[in-house]
Amino acid sequence: MLQSIWDDIRREFDYGNMVNRIIIVNVAVYLVINLAWAGLSLFNQQSTPESYYAIVHFFSISNSGWHMLTHPWTVLTHMFLHEGFWHILFNMLWLFWFGRIFGDLLGDRRVLPLYILGGLAGAVFFFLGASLTGFAGDGAINHYALGASAAVMCIVVATGVFAPDYSIRLLFLGNVRIKYIVAFVVLMNVISLGNSVNTGGTVGHLGGIAMGFLFTWYLKRGTDLTTPIQSTLTGVQNLYHSILSPSKEHPQARPPRCLSRRPLREGNGHHQGAPRLHAPGGRGGQI
Hints:
The protein has 287 residues and is mainly alpha-helical. It has a domain at 59-228: Rhomboid-like fold, CATH 1.20.1540. Helix content is 59%, strand content 6%. The chain has a two-stranded antiparallel ribbon. The radius of gyration is 27 Å and the shape is globular.
């Protein structure tokens, strides 16, 4: 059973669309983090040890300039990191619903770059918001942020701008046009700024929302903000394949030769049915 599940996941990651790949990565990271929490807590009298928080903070963004300077990778890793079940569930549902529509409208190649842009914008808003709004206090205590909410909100807003009259069937409400869903989400995030709970997260959401609007504004005028990230991802992919592929000085090993024998016939002093070499593909002797 486990092998079958693993094969399905690999197949979906290799041949599925980008939305499904992002969801797979997020869920995989979520499982690893929570399994680490369970294992560490088991040997710490069922309480969360400091080592677990150190692991999470290692991949999370912070209001601390020193943390961001010494952990530059967190601007990318934080947007694939979740701790809570409901946090990742709703983020992935929003991404699944709106990401597929976005990919159908504007191309699957733009999904991951826009996801990254939204996450980066959320990180910038979180860092600046901690300095300007004071939700992080006097800065004596580091505050951390993680999750894909800003990245997902970016895709949600971009989808709503490009397909405002596209309808989604919601439970108890029936068909609802995307523009009303996006307007509700944006309004709720603005109102949530007055709440003392997860203010930093809300500021990050607004960063993703702002990037979604900015992306659509530029794209309608002929400039695609995702192009640099697309080029970077393509370069990384090409580098990855070039490392794995054998060099010209070390060609791949030849496939084993297949011998096809025919019954020997009596001839004029030689065997007309001597073994002949066959290369894969059906061409005899061309190996």
